[in-house]
């Protein structure tokens, strides 16, 4: 709508917030413009002998690949043909001065309603690697997700051996029930949601599940070749271990940023994270077939889907029948192997070369300390709830503020500033209002406060945030995702963060650069970023159950002085409310 702010508000609509085919390719600037169309439609899908209608993009599950190059412009028209409201988030894309295209519902846009459309228009700047796109409203991303593959610029090479083939593998979760019904019931009763029924590789659960012997992902390889596996954890609520029997993996990228290569037999990947690994096959085809497995890393006190997804790595050879080959199985760490995870994540380092520098802020303008964890809300009068007690509901918070999604999108409210006071406040606490022993004995009062509270910071502020897990309702790992930015993980540890003794140990030389980081169970992580992208940017737990319970906040990065430091006006078709 090209309407004035006043008309926009008069036209207020109360909405519940809570490879597609390329059409054309046109030349532009240093890259090209790639056009895609996403038709949001229902599709009947059968898994685990359960057939149900799911929300998809173009009738595909998982959704289509979007393939682009660094420097290209993406123009994706999303047309909503389903009863649900929808929005699409381009997870990990920096969205430099294109915050209107970021996609989280009620943050940078109102959702696309039934029968309506919106064009996401943005340029891939300074990024190459594996990201993904997914729905960003309620729990629709359970089925609405797909890979976003950013190739290097033409005539640019990888900083590692050129792979023979590149293969995306998306980890997902399958619910026999409707995921929307699952979270709605949880929010109503105040209890934990029912868990998923299976994990999947590229939408397939594999032979360890009932009725799924034929729904198995097979990776067929040739001997003596190097494969680039683009791993994406699109699961709703679970961090996952992954391993391939009798094969090691070389980590070369995390969240679309190259890392110093290191080998591992087992990796752990949180929801929202992407990882590129090199798989070097054996020089001669072995007389064996190899299982690839993924199962959860779980630290919380709640129930979780304690099952295992299996796929098969199969060597192409005409000589031996598959029936005669032994099937080898990889070992995986214990479900709660927190020390393994800490050791694994500490190995990630930026390349920190002249071509791929680690521009970690050496000096910090503003420091923040955010507690991250669970809590409770009072049960409504005359209702019995299923939270920790009959009189409470489960909740989640940062600095004891449970984030309440507004009815008017935050970026719209910020841009048309005369309406902002009705929608949000900028008094999100920089530090806990009542300090306590965060990882020790939890306080008796576990109630959280509700609010749409943001932090406003000037353009180009250098920011440090310490994210501290708490033991309230049990210590737990939390994958925190920041929209619109990458950040550097400069430190992590167990117990309570020590502001005197821990900062001198920070890595300010080659820390890993990510968009999603796991806050250690019973520990903390410190991140730094330069606030050089004006707009409103959500920061939240990528466990959807925790996000639904309010584990999030948002940053307002104010416009800078010069035109190239300011957020442009919204596109005319932006869904407003």
TrEMBL record:
GO terms for molecular function: copper ion binding; hydroquinone:oxygen oxidoreductase activity. It comes from the Eukaryota. One of its GO terms (cellular component) is apoplast. Lignin degradation and detoxification of lignin-derived products. Keywords: Apoplast, Copper, Glycoprotein, Lignin degradation, Metal-binding, Oxidoreductase, Repeat, Secreted, Signal. Pfam families: Cu-oxidase, Cu-oxidase_2, Cu-oxidase_3. Belongs to the multicopper oxidase family. Residues 1-27 form the signal peptide. It comes from Gossypium mustelinum (Cotton). It is found in: Secreted, Extracellular space, Apoplast. Its EC number is 1.10.3.2. The keyword Metal-binding applies. The keyword Glycoprotein applies. Its cofactor is Cu cation. It catalyses: 4 hydroquinone + O2 = 4 benzosemiquinone + 2 H2O. GO terms for biological process: lignin catabolic process. This is Laccase. Binds 4 Cu cations per monomer. SUPFAM superfamilies: Cupredoxins (SSF49503).
């Amino acid at each position: 709508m090209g309407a004035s702010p006043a008309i926009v508000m008069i036209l207020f609509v109360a909405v519940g917030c809570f490879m597609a085919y390329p059409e054309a390719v046109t030349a532009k600037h240093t890259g090209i413009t790639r056009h895609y169309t996403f038709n949001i439609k229902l599709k009947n899908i059968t898994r685990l002998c359960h057939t149900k209608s799911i929300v998809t993009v173009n009738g595909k599950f998982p959704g289509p690949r979007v393939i682009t190059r660094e420097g290209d412009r993406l123009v994706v028209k999303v047309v909503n043909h389903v009863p649900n409201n929808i929005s699409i988030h381009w997870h990990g894309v920096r969205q430099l001065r294109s915050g209107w295209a970021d996609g989280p519902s009620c943050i940078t846009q109102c959702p696309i309603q039934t029968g309506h459309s919106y064009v996401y228009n943005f340029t891939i700047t300074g990024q190459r690697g594996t990201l993904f796109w997914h729905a960003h409203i309620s729990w629709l991303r359970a089925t609405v997700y797909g890979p976003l593959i950013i190739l290097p610029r033409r005539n640019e090479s990888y900083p590692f051996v050129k792979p023979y083939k590149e293969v995306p593998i998306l980890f997902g979760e399958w619910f026999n029930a409707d995921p929307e019904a699952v979270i709605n019931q949880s929010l109503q009763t105040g209890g934990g949601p029912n868990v998923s029924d299976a994990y999947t590789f590229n939408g397939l659960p594999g032979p360890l599940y009932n009725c799924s012997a034929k729904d198995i992902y097979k990776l067929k390889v040739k001997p003596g070749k190097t494969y680039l596996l683009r791993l994406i954890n699109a699961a709703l609520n679970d961090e996952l271990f992954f391993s391939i029997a009798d094969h090691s993996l070389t980590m070369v990228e995390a969240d679309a940023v190259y890392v110093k290569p290191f080998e591992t037999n087992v990796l752990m990947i949180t929801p929202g994270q992407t990882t590129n690994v090199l798989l070097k096959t054996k020089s001669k085809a072995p007389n064996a077939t190899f299982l690839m497995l993924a199962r959860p890393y779980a630290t919380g006190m709640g129930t979780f889907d304690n099952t295992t997804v299996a796929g098969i790595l199969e060597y192409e050879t005409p000589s031996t029948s598959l029936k005669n080959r032994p099937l080898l199985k990889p070992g995986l760490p214990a479900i709660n192997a927190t020390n393994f995870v800490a050791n694994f994540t500490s190995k990630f380092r930026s390349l920190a070369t002249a071509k791929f520098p680690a521009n970690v802020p050496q000096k910090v303008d503003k420091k923040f300390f955010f507690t991250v964890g669970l809590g409770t809300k009072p049960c409504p009068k005359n209702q019995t709830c299923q939270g920790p007690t009959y009189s409470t509901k489960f909740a989640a918070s940062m600095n004891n503020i449970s984030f309440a999604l507004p009815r008017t999108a935050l970026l719209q409210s910020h841009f048309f500033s005369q309406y902002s006071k009705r929608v949000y406040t900028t008094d999100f606490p920089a530090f806990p209002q009542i300090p306590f022993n965060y990882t020790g004995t939890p306080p008796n009062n576990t109630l959280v406060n509700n609010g749409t509270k943001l932090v406003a910071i000037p353009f180009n502020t250098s920011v440090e945030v310490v994210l501290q897990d708490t033991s309230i309702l049990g210590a737990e790992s939390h994958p925190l995702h920041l929209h619109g930015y990458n950040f550097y993980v400069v430190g992590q540890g167990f117990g309570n963060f020590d502001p005197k003794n821990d900062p001198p140990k920070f890595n300010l030389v080659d820390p890993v650069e990510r968009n999603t980081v796991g806050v250690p169970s019973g520990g903390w992580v410190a991140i730094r970023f330069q606030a050089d992208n004006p707009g409103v940017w959500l920061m939240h737990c990528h466990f959807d159950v925790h996000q639904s319970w309010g584990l999030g906040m948002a940053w307002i990065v104010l416009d800078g002085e010069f035109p190239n430091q300011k957020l442009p006006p919204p596109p005319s078709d932006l869904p407003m409310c």
